[in-house]
Structure formats: structure tokens, C-alpha cells
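Consider what follows.

. . .
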Amino acid sequence: PHALAIIMVPLGVTNAWQIWQYRHERGETPFLAPLVLSGLAGIGLGTWALTELPVNALSLTLATIVTLYIVMTLAKPQLALAPKRGRRLAPGVGFVGGVLQGATGISAPVTVTFMHALRLERGPFIFAVSVMFVSWALVQSASLAVAGVLTPFRLVEGVLALVPIALGMPIGNWLAKKASRRTFERIIVGILAVMAVRLFQTGLGF
């Protein structure tokens, strides 16, 4: 809960900046509105779970899902989700992602995996992820404040966390512009792999 409260400020600010940077890519993300709106409905349930339920089993489930997706991606590099099917699945993915965001602060194993399966270009991918995180961060901040998790002191800690992030983002943007689509997809798979390892560690108590 403490870590989740601190991350709300940098999550909102950094992704708002990226929405502005990639605003011209919004036409390439027709699945985004149903995903975000259904996710907002799930955040309240997830916030309740944050204060009431253990996360070990949830972490292990998420880690398993992501690992299976990575194996499928490596075994079939051309694996992709058709845009029409993606729009149909978006509300369900968004709701599950919202619940996970509220409960653990980590919706990426579901939502980023879904967007990666759509094989989006770098610009639309970043725009979609940023809109999702900003929208959810605003609602989740209110939920955390009502639940007594987001306190004034933790809010100040979140503002201070912007300093190292501000130093790192320009470097990340510069590196990303140098990467090809293939390299970008490999980076996403690598990030998902790191998430899976970390989730296994959390679930197993390492």
C-alpha cells in the first residue's frame, strides 16, 4: 500500500506528458475507450482487495499468465491479435486490469500483454498505455485517499519521486527513437519477462 500510494504522482505526471507527446497517434487505438472505462469500474473492487486480501496467489497467477504468453510469442513470433477481436476483448481485459491495478498497482501483465498482442506501432502503443495509466491513476488516487492509504506525507514522497524520473525520461525517449519496431517488441517482451520473475518472487516469498 505504501509503495502504491507513492507511485500515483509519478504515474500520472509522466504518462500525461507522454499523452501530449503522442497525441497524434490517438486514431490508431480504437480499443482504448472500452478498455479504460471498464478498467475504471474494476479499480474500486481492486482497492478493496488491496486492503483485505493476500497477494501471493494473485502474483503467482499473473506470473504464470505472462510466462505462457512469452513462451507463445517466442515459439510463434508472428502471433498477433486481430484489431476486430481486440476491440471485442478490450472491455474484459480492461476490467481485469483495473482490478489488478487497484489491488497490486500492477496491471501491465494483463493490459500491456494485450496491447503487445495487437502488434501496435511504438507511437500508438505508448499513447494507449499512457492514457490508460493516467485515467486509472486519477480514479485510484481518489480510492486510495478514501481508504486512508494515500496520505499527505506519501503524496509529498510521490512528488519527490519525480526528480529521478525526470532525469531518466529524456534518455529513455532518445533511446526508444533509435530502436526499430522489432527491437521495440523485443524490449516489451524483456520487460514482461522481468515482471514475471518479480511476480514469482513475490508470490513465493523470496
